[in-house]
Design goal:
261 residues; mainly alpha; Four Helix Bundle (Hemerythrin (Met), subunit A); 2 domains
């Protein structure tokens, strides 16, 4: 089974990401190239693992929390690479690769059962785009939130440092909205209602409103950088509660969105 290779594959990926972070602080063209190719290789390895694992279990690897963490690590790595390539943003690469590594380490320390069974409700063409939209939105919004906070509390605020993460915030918000709409249409087809006030749905809506507030503060109070940074961190906390914390709430047993284990 492909999952038996997860730990060695994850350790190789984390080691290559660490190597990338080591070279990114060296001010030379060769070090930049080493950092870029190391991060690219490691992220590609993780992507290939997802592909082979998908083929092995014969279902989308998005059912368990551990599987979504792998997707999250992969997508954060992709986002970090793209931003680094386009803008040579060391901050975004450092934040992204450290965050991606942490989630892989959690999967190594806390493995979960990975069966081939997929409940009938998830055997839908809406399943993959819904989950991928959310995971990519979470990757973009988390990276942007931490980058804005880093900018304010370690370097001071200026427009250049805010432009890149705020661009990611807008894109992440679009994907978050798209994921919610896909989920609503899927729910209508599967259960007959667009909205059921499920705990996960409610917290997803709260997350959406928090990042909507972030966007409004950025647009209409552009000089309030510290306020924006605090809102971004608060929004990130709400986002992680929505994704990771719902199953620990008393209302979790009423939710159809709690990940299988």
């Amino acid at each position: 089974m492909v999952w038996s290779f997860f730990v060695p594959a994850a350790l190789v990926v984390i080691a290559l990401w660490a190597l990338s972070l080591f070279f990114v602080f060296k001010d030379s063209g060769r070090s930049y190239a080493f950092s870029w190719y190391s991060a690219l290789l490691s992220t590609t390895i993780l992507g290939l693992f997802i592909v082979f694992y998908w083929l092995d279990i014969n279902r989308p690897p998005m059912r368990t929390m551990a599987e979504t963490r792998i997707w999250y690590s992969f997508l954060v790595g992709v986002v970090s690479l793209c931003v680094f390539k386009l803008y040579r943003s060391k901050n975004m690469l450092v934040i992204g690769l450290i965050m991606a590594s942490v989630f892989l380490i959690v999967d190594i320390v806390h493995p979960e059962y990975h069966g081939k069974f997929l409940m009938p409700a998830l055997q839908s063409p809406w399943f993959i785009p819904h989950v991928v939209s959310y995971m990519l939105a979470y990757a973009l919004l988390a990276s942007a939130s931490l980058a804005v906070a880093w900018s304010v509390y370690t370097k001071g605020s200026n427009d250049t440092e805010f432009k890149q993460p705020m661009n990611l915030t807008y894109l992440g918000f679009v994907l978050l909205t798209f994921g919610m709409l896909l989920g609503a249409f899927w729910a209508k087809i599967a259960w007959g209602n667009y909205w059921a006030w499920d705990p996960k749905e409610v917290w997803a809506l709260i997350t959406w409103f928090f990042y909507l507030l972030v966007i409004h503060v950025h647009l209409y109070l552009p000089s309030r950088k510290e306020l924006l940074a605090r809102l971004m961190i608060l929004s990130l906390i709400v986002l992680f509660i929505t994704w990771l914390g719902i199953k620990y709430l008393p209302s979790a047993n009423q939710s159809i969105h709690v990940y299988g284990g």
